[in-house]
Automatic annotation (TrEMBL), chain A:
<feature type="domain" description="Carboxyltransferase">
    <location>
        <begin position="35"/>
        <end position="290"/>
    </location>
</feature>
<dbReference type="InterPro" id="IPR029000">
    <property type="entry name" value="Cyclophilin-like_dom_sf"/>
</dbReference>
<keyword id="KW-0067">ATP-binding</keyword>
<dbReference type="Pfam" id="PF02626">
    <property type="entry name" value="CT_A_B"/>
</dbReference>
<dbReference type="InterPro" id="IPR003778">
    <property type="entry name" value="CT_A_B"/>
</dbReference>
<dbReference type="InterPro" id="IPR052708">
    <property type="entry name" value="PxpC"/>
</dbReference>
<keyword id="KW-0378">Hydrolase</keyword>
<keyword id="KW-0547">Nucleotide-binding</keyword>
<protein>
    <submittedName>
        <fullName>Biotin-dependent carboxyltransferase family protein</fullName>
    </submittedName>
</protein>
């Protein structure tokens, strides 16, 4: 660890050297704009992002960097403290391997290499002081559906940091979260669009994560669910809604989902199981359980 | 250009704060009773309230915003209002206090100037069995109501076209519709805030600033807003 004290540094910036396939800023997302068609966005793995913030003494609304599989390369221009959580990946500062899931103080000008992910999809990088990008409609989150909020990170971007206080006592050891890939479902508002056996067939069914899954939705492929034919008028959609298009292959709506949609929502995923959706890779199997 | 009348940039809660205690009934709005409203749970923290149509949904959404309910999102749509981040039991307790008379307070009126030079004017005239001039005449004579947004931020579904003027969408959507395009589909009118693919029939274009995240009310045509179009050369 470096002896630099980030708490005494004036406003620091972090340079984006290589954003990887997709890196964005995320906080807890924007609330209150769904009626205008603006998705909530926000960190997809909320637990991992919250842990990263806590590790650097940040507040619950601080923005962090969310990476996608390939990781990110950053260079702080001043000494800073950072923490990486979420998808399991190597974290290096210069040529030195440093801890995942713990606060690390990095000297000015050092190259911080996060990833690629070996398990999971999305890693989170939090900085002491938080990333002080200009909020849009009350949030620093990037939404990848309507592209409200800061643009996705690009090489050469300079991320300003807010003022940081003293580091907190380290939180209880970050327990790795070996999660069973199980999504618990409640009946959705249009569960009656499933045929008589459809709902019971969902319980225990195994689906594979499709390659076109993203921050908008986790697309599942597996047993075809027969649904009533016909058209439903567009209606508001919640996070975790399981929509059933005519293909019979369900989609779990994640943070950047459209705010309204016309396919029936047959089920809703339990809120506690949504973080796991952020870390599922194409081809991973998930089991659905009816509660 | 825009000729705002009333307070187009005030958001719904502010508008509703002007509501007289007893409300005033507004003629011309659909009436319905509690028996027409159903509440369907969506998970544990959200519910859908089902109503007769989009105008009723917009009206109910505006009323809910002024009713002091703890709720994160109020999303009107074609026949429902989604209340998200809410206790469904609180919604069920609240709704009996709602009536069409109390909710039907007219929203602000916005005027949108349109150059009627769209590529589908002839097609619309064909569907309506009239001339292009008569299409413009009818479109500028109607008062529309923004009922809900979706598709893209700031894209509002405007109700007000009579049922006998419904038009079908294009069989093959255009790959790119220019921002500011004023368009019809079924009985809806809409204005594209940004360039996007689209299958609606294009009447013309406007320079109105439909979406600006720097404004207190980013959507010019937020749900509840009344809209009139006027012809500009």
């Amino acid at each position: 660890m470096s002896g630099a004290c980030p708490a005494s540094a004036s406003r620091a910036v972090v340079e984006v050297v290589d954003p990887g396939p997709l890196s964005t800023l995320q906080d807890r997302g924007r609330r209150g704009w769904a009626h205008l068609g603006v998705p909530r966005a926000g960190a997809l793995d909320r637990g991992a992002a919250a842990l990263a913030r806590r590790l650097v003494g940040g507040g619950p609304d601080d923005a962090v960097v969310e990476t996608t599989v390939g990781g990110v390369v950053l260079r702080p221009h001043r000494a800073v403290t950072l923490a990486v959580t979420g998808a399991v990946c190597a974290v290096r500062v210069g040529r030195r391997a440093v801890a995942h899931g713990a606060p690390v103080t990095v000297p000015a000008g050092a190259l911080v290499m996060v990833g690629p992910a070996s398990t999971g999809v999305r890693s989170y990088v939090a900085f002491a002081g938080g990333i002080a990008a200009t909020p849009v409609l009350g949030s620093r989150s990037t939404d990848t559906l309507a592209w409200v909020g800061p643009p996705r990170l690009a090489p050469g971007d300079l991320l300003p940091l807010g003022p940081s206080g003293p580091l907190p006592e380290p939180p209880p050891a970050a327990v790795g979260r070996p999660r069973e890939p199980v999504l618990r479902l409640r009946r959705g508002p249009r569960a009656d669009w499933l045929d008589r056996t459809g709902w019971s067939r969902l319980d225990g069914a195994s689906y594979a994560v499709a390659a076109d899954s993203d921050r908008i939705g986790l697309r599942l492929t597996g047993p075809r669910l027969e649904r009533r034919s016909g058209e439903l008028a567009s209606e508001g959609i919640v996070l975790g809604a399981v929509q059933l298009p005519p293909s019979g292959q369900p989609v779990v709506f994640l943070a950047d989902h459209p705010t309204t949609g016309g396919y029936p929502v047959v089920a809703v995923v339990e809120d506690d199981d949504l973080d796991a959706c952020a870390q599922l890779r194409p081809g991973d199997e998930v089991v659905l359980r009816v509660v | 250009m825009l000729i705002p009348s009333g307070a187009p940039h005030l958001c719904a809660p502010t508008r509703l704060s002007n509501l007289p205690a007893d409300g005033n009934s507004a003629p011309g709005h659909a009436r319905w009773t509690m028996t027409d409203v159903e509440v369907v749970d969506v998970g544990t923290r959200a519910c859908l309230v089902e109503v007769d149509d989009a105008v009723a949904a917009a009206s109910l959404a505006a009323w809910v915003r002024g009713a002091g309910l703890a709720v994160e999102e109020v999303v009107p749509a074609a026949r429902t209002v989604l209340l998200d981040g809410v206790d469904p039991a609180a919604v069920r307790a609240l709704l009996p206090g709602w009536s069409a008379e109390r909710a039907a307070v007219p929203g602000p009126l916005v005027s949108v100037a349109v150059r009627y030079s769209g590529p589908d004017l002839e097609r619309v005239a064909g569907h309506w069995g009239c001339t292009v001039e008569e299409v413009v005449e009818l479109h500028t004579s109607l008062e529309f109501t923004s009922t809900f947004c979706g598709f893209a931020p700031g894209f509002a579904y405007l109700a007000g076209l009579p049922a006998d003027r419904a038009v079908p969408r294009l069989e093959t959507p255009r790959a790119r519709v220019a921002p500011g395009s004023v368009a019809l589909a079924d009985t809806w009118c809409g204005v594209y805030p940004t360039a996007s693919p689209g299958g609606w029939l294009l009447l013309g274009t406007t320079d109105a600033d439909l979406w600006d995240v720097g404004r207190a009310e980013p959507a010019l045509l937020a749900p509840g807003t009344r809209v009139r179009f006027e012809a500009r050369r």
